[in-house]
Design a protein that fits this description.
The protein is α/β, with parallel strands linked by helices. The protein is built from 13 helices and eleven strands. About 45% of the residues lie in helices and about 15% in strands. It binds coenzyme A.
Length: about 350
């Protein structure tokens, strides 16, 4: 997520929306100063009820050193006897088919990331936010093992909200890009899931009808290569799974974004050069693509925002500022509300 002193109006809007929801958000990276500051900042603006998951002695001592007031912030100690026993039972039940022992479950749930994921699964919190300290795979693993995907979706992925100065494109310059953070080499089935969940993210965060482009170096068979065929197959699967969705591919980025190019390369296509959701064929393309737009084209990038999980477990960039963490708390609350309404 880019550091922003003046967040885009859509990001400010997400915070205002979240304030009305009163969600409980777990923050398991208690040893991170930005997390403590973000928890207090979120409390100060009534963004959510924050639940720090971690060692209460450390949290109280560090908060005092940083002059952070902890009133109205809950603390759950994953090592407290009763909490740990409940979590160990839940985790053992969930993972016994994978061959874990009760002792292994007991050890694992002392980890605040696992404790927060169990709290999220059971509905004791509505969302969780981590990733300021831990890399994406470490944050995602407990969420993938414990929270999992909702019925009908089997791939968790991530998207970025990209805010460009090109106001005549996308949703007044805004786009959803996916997947820039989670699935390295998606199969056609996984790519179809990424497209469908990215479309949901477009509705949720940009409040707009998604127009999904399944990007490739080929437009509708212009190149005959297995990579292009993969994207074509993903397009077919996504159209089958979500028949009402405006989604097309395989398509080159220029044909997806520029009506004049679309008229030449894809005159019969439904996107007509007006895509607002760009689904990249793999993680290399997705990660490099969003970074190029961010660094070379003065676009702000918000994410990675995890999508495709049954509950609102969110990741952060390790470079996230306090302000950005507060925004992700808001996004977790909004995603939690959307998932609860299903
Ligand atoms: C996300 C990631 C950590 C998953 O790692 P993995 O090695 O596939 O995970 P595991 O094989 O241990 O799988 C753990 C569980 O998650 C599931 N899983 C893995 N990826 C999944 C996905 N994208 N969606 C849904 N479930 C997934 C597995 O099926 C497994 O479930 P099970 O234990 O109940 O059988 C891995 O894909 C990854 O490292 N991605 C890149 C992240 C990254 O570095 N990003 C940097 C840019 S920000």
């Amino acid at each position: 997520m880019t550091d922003e002193r003046h967040p885009h109006p859509v990001i400010r809007g997400l915070r205002i929306q979240a304030m009305k929801l009163g969600k409980r958000i777990a923050m398991p990276e208690y040893a991170d100063d930005r997390t403590l500051r973000a928890a207090a900042a979120a409390r100060d603006i009534n963004l959510a009820q924050i639940v720090l998951v971690g060692d209460p002695d450390y949290i109280q001592k560090r908060a005092a050193e940083l002059r952070i007031e902890l009133s109205d912030i809950e603390i759950v100690n994953p090592e407290a006897e009763d909490v740990r026993r409940l979590h160990a039972e839940e985790f053992f039940e969930l993972r016994r088919h994978k061959g874990i022992s009760e002792q292994q479950a007991w050890e694992q749930v002392a980890d605040p990331l696992y404790a927060a994921a169990l709290m999220l699964r059971a509905g004791r919190v509505d969302g969780s936010v981590a990733g300021a300290l831990n890399p994406t795979p470490v944050v995602l693993k407990p969420l993938l093992q414990i929270v999992k995907c909702p019925p009908g979706i089997s791939t968790a992925s991530s998207c970025f909200i990209i805010a460009t100065p090109m106001e005549h494109m996308g949703v007044e310059g805004l786009f959803i890009f996916a997947d820039g953070g989670v699935v390295p080499n998606p199969t056609p089935e996984q790519l179809a899931d990424i497209a469908i969940t990215s479309a949901e993210s477009c509705r949720l965060y940009l409040n707009a009808e998604p127009r999904v482009a399944m990007l490739s170096f080929s437009t509708k068979g212009s190149a005959k290569h297995p990579d292009a065929v993969k994207v074509r197959e993903a397009t077919r699967l996504a159209q089958e799974k979500a028949p009402g969705l405006i989604l097309d591919g395989e398509i080159q980025a220029d044909a997806a974004l520029v009506p004049e190019v679309a008229a030449r390369k894809d005159s019969d296509g439904i996107l007509q050069g007006q895509a607002n959701v760009l689904v990249f064929p793999d993680l290399d393309a997705g990660n490099i693509g969003y970074k190029l737009v961010h660094r070379l084209a003065h676009a702000n990038a918000y994410g990675p925002l995890v999508q495709g999980l049954a509950k609102a477990g969110m990741d952060l960039s390790r470079g996230a500022s306090v302000n950005e963490i507060v925004t992700v708390i808001a996004i977790a609350a909004i995603r939690a509300e959307a998932l609860a309404g299903r």
